Amino acid sequence: xxxxxxxxxxxxxxxxxxxxxxxxxxxxxxxxxxxxxxxxxxxxxxxxxxxxxxxxxxxxxxxxxxxxxxxxxxxxxxxxxxxxxxxxxxxxxxxxxxxxxxxxxxxxxxxxxxxxxxxxxxxxxxxxxxxxxxxxxxxxxxxxxxxxxxxxxxxxxxxxxxxxxxxxxxxxxxxxxxxxxxxxxxxxxxxxxxxxxxxxxxxxxxxxxxxxxxxxxxxxxxxxxxxxxxxxxxxxxxxxxxxxxxxxxxxxxxxxxxxxxxxxxxxxxxxxxxxxxxxxxxxxxxxxxxxxxxxxxxxxxxxxxxxxxxxxxxxxxxxxxxxxxxxxxxxxxxxxxxxxxxxxxxxxxxxxxxxxxxxxxxxxxxxxxxxxxxxxxxxxxxxxxxxxxxxxxxxxxxxxxxxxxxxxxxxxxxxxxxxxxxxxxxxxxxxxxxxxxxxxxxxxxxxxxxxxxxxxxxxxxxxxxxxxxxxxxxxxx
Length: 477
Hints:
It contains 16 helices and 21 strands. The chain is an alpha+beta fold. Helix 12 (277-292) packs across helix 13 (300-311).
């Protein structure tokens, strides 16, 4: 009986560490396996001693046919035996994985936590408790290391976390009160209470990375150190403490560096450059999570690439997991879903070559237009931005407007000679995703104006002539 008491007290301590109020309802994620069964038994004991109100929630993934249905029936029967309220759900994980292009593991997790969130709402619960053990923590940390994770990955699972649900802003409080307990202790606890948990045979299938670690890698490491799981757990605890310090510094840095931008966020390059690399990495994580709603799939390699773009020259871009794209401008980097990035593009879609009316109005795709007119030079603009003042003799030339072509060269205003247009656009900080959309006004003598940038040196206005060709690019509306 002493072992049972110790286990129940350890679970109670884990709940307290996760700031769970034992007077409020708690949902137990109950698969019917040894870990969740031990958690349910311990919480049922706490229900009698501390008045903890619990609901067991079982999700049928429908991945193993009749076995999955058997598990659901067993879970319900166990709850009936213990006098615990039971909430059941099911989902087509295979179909969802196929439709969304995700792995079976990711699809199962997403559907399971969606169900658990709904179960928590129905029960009016403060959180959902899972049966993750010290062994699960060791496996998670090793898996993260193998995948190249940073300090947060080495920290492993937290005792309490708010998980985003379905990317719609909802969050589910998940607590793990058994993280300091071994899986063998959970098995023994069930045996001593006369309960025979279910054994999921898929846990031995080594085609899944976690199972391969459990079946092959952990035993190999135990031949070097029999207490390797405990050692990895301590590593995670140490990393978690270090991460919390960095996280606190990063929160303030993130508030200063990150601002909302249409469809995503903008990150100040000046702010990022002034941060310690460890803090800067965390700021990038905050930025990514604020747009994606999760850090799922983001690795240490991705963070290094994000920092390189965030501190690098304008025009660089980076594709990231979850369909996100990071692009560098002069003063900031923008992070958003790919489809949202062009919402602020000041240029029309790709421009096929067409004649430019001088004077007159030339319509481009996407509702853009170029307006050309001859005027006096009393109020000459600098020739930058979306208005250009060009030599008046160009009015008599056959002008065209088009997008760039391979090999284009351009002689910028104030430069000593022609340069590659590609180099000019890069040095001007035009993002890569915009470069094919920049309208070019061309005469037989060459490119006279790069819209949004500069006119050509040879097309500059001579004030003594008293006249100029003014061309302005207008957006939709």
